[in-house]
Amino acid sequence: MRYESKLDQLLPLAAWSNRALAKVPAPTLDPDRIEHYVVGRAGVPRVPGEHWRGPFRALCADLERSARLSPLGRMMANGQLVGLLKARCRAEQLLTRYPEIHDEPVRAPIIIMGPMRSGSTRVQRLLACDPRLSATRLFETLFPVPHGRGDRRRVVAAAAVHASLRILNPAVQQIHPSGPLRSDEEFGYLSFAFHSGQFGVQWDVPDFIAGEARRDHEPVAAELRTLLQVNSWARGGAGARRPLLKCPAYSGMAEALLEVFPDARLICLTRDPVKVVASSASLVFQQRRIHSDEADPRRIGPEWLERTATRERQLASARRAHPDVPAFDLHYDEVSADWVGEMHRLYRFLRMPLEREVLGRMERYLGGAKAHRGHRYRSEDFGLSDEAILATMSNSGEGGAMALAPRRAVFAQ
């Protein structure tokens, strides 16, 4: 039977892949069968750890129940799940063989907080121009556990994944330009613990996401720290550099992050809520249509409005509970208008000198950046109105990254 796809004219390679894959047996999304396969390949009795098992099983169930995966989407989901369980086995083996990894320092990390599309990538990549800071690169987040010291194997694999996704849907690269060696967010480090950060972007899995609210995020944050140590070790021991972290999902687990990283410094980003939510919905839609030809933009809009507001409430609550944590609010429009002045102010907050050479690197980065050119989006395309977005976000809580208050900086004494 021919696979009928709505993507024939829109994403021709995805449509061709779906027709071809519809002729072969569908890969499993059964959690027990996936683990059985992985332990057989890894030669271990069981995939290590416990805290990830409930979310893993919930995700598998929701992929079957709600995600409406295409044949290509199902194959990609199976590959991701298998890869993550293999990575958990490999991490355990590395940490057993090289116990000194646990001694890699994670010193005063700088954590960029803010919703999707709030300018977090721009700020991260500006700061990543500073050799005193250590940002996660795309190949590390796509494959968070190395096979040993050195990067070549992961870089090659990440280049292949990145090229495939660009071909499947070029719009994703237009909205979020990236590359295997470029700085990117730690979504893969969170996926390692089966957190919803990336999965909720790729797939429509509402029950799995709802379960996130009941989850203890401290083991997720603890594994994030361990993966930072593993990747520092794989780089040859880069622990002397301050970690620079960025992921939209961090706002929703800020309490746990501050428990695991008590010496963190927060950069909280602000942007017009209408632009944030509409642009987020646009990116989610383009991601999901790779995995499903039934991605519905008018369902995605309300979903991401609520998710954005919820994360902002959680970040605001964490900031109220930890008033002593140094935090700096940075507005998207202020960076656009005077990025040099904002970087000077930010560096004063970080208590680091902004060296001329670093400023020159930042200028060269911005000169070559092609972020979001041609990206067009409207609230109404996603079942929303500007008024509804503003009303919902106005209740997200003072002190979150979307609170339209003047910039505030709190310095630890």
Brief rundown of the structure:
The protein has helices at residues 12-21, 31-42, 53-65, 71-97, 120-127, 138-142, 152-168, 170-175, 187-191, 196-202, 206-212, 218-234, 254-260, 273-291, 297-321, 332-337, 339-350, 356-368, 386-393, and strands spanning 110-113, 133-135, 242-246, 265-270, 327-331, 409-410. With 413 residues, it is of the alpha/beta class. It has a single domain (107-410), classed as Rossmann fold.
What does the main sheet amount to?
6 strands, mixed
Indicate the CATH topology: Rossmann fold
Number of helices: 19
Strand content: 5-15%
Look at the structure and name the CATH superfamily. Answer: P-loop containing nucleotide triphosphate hydrolases
Helix content estimate = 40-55%
CATH architecture call? 3-Layer(aba) Sandwich
Instruction: State the shape.
Output: globular
Structure description:
- The chain has 19 helices and six strands.
- The chain is α/β, with parallel strands linked by helices and 413 residues long.
- The chain has a six-stranded mixed sheet with strand order 2-3-1-4-5-6.
